Amino acid sequence: MKSIYRLKKNSQYNYVYKHAESVADKNFIMLYCTARSNPTRVGFSVSKRYGKAVRRNRIRRQMKAAVSAVAERLVTGYNVVFIPRRHGEYDFDEIVCSLDGLLSKAGLLR
After folding, report:
1. In the predicted model, is pLDDT for residue 105 greater than 90?
2. DSSP secondary-structure letter at 110?
3. Contact 81, 7 (CB under 8 A)
4. Rounded to the nearest 10 degrees, how much is the dihedral formed by the CA atoms of 59, 63, 85, 75?
5. pTM for the whole thing?
6. Is 104 within 8 Å of 65 (Cβ atoms)?
7. What distance in Å separates the CA atoms of residue 52 and residue 29, rounded to the nearest whole number?
8. pLDDT confidence of 71, banded at 50, 70, 90?
9. Are the beta carbons of 21 and 91 closer than 8 angstroms?
10. Domain-wise residue ranges, the chain
11. How far is Cα 63 from Cα 75, in angstroms, rounded to an integer?
12. Any idea which architecture 3-106 has in CATH?
């Protein structure tokens, strides 16, 4: 995933948390809000209760790969944060379907 499509600063995440609308399914919660930036930027938040660093980084890498697969179809002008909901292992195909469904439910896909 390219650097211009990522949320990087804590203030950007806090803005999304404060002004966000949410969409959820059994696997993920998606928070999104409008932004001043032209490309849609995406961030991933995996809490420590999800597990040790190896597990947290693995799910984060899988979510980044899933979003980069649909990045060209994203509507511009939004900030999005994905949060995993359950603690078990995820199958990559399940992640792709889930994130694609959340983005289309929110109307962020062309």
Report:
1. yes
2. -
3. yes
4. 170
5. 0.93
6. no
7. 20
8. confident
9. no
10. 3-106
11. 18
12. 2-Layer Sandwich (3.30)
Q: Which residues contact 70 (CB under 8 A, 6 or more apart)?
A: 99, 100, 103, 109
CA 1 – CA 72 distance, rounded (Å): 11
- The two counts, helices (H) then strands (E), for the chain are 3, 4
pLDDT the model gives residue 65: 94
Question: How does pLDDT run across 46-61, given as a tens digit for each residue?
Answer: 999 888 999 999 999 9
Mean residue pLDDT across the chain:
92
Q: How big is the CA angle at 7 (ends 55 and 56), to the nearest 5 degrees?
A: 5
For tokens 């809490």, the residue is 47
User: Percent helix, strand, coil in the chain (nearest 5)?
Assistant: 45, 25, 30
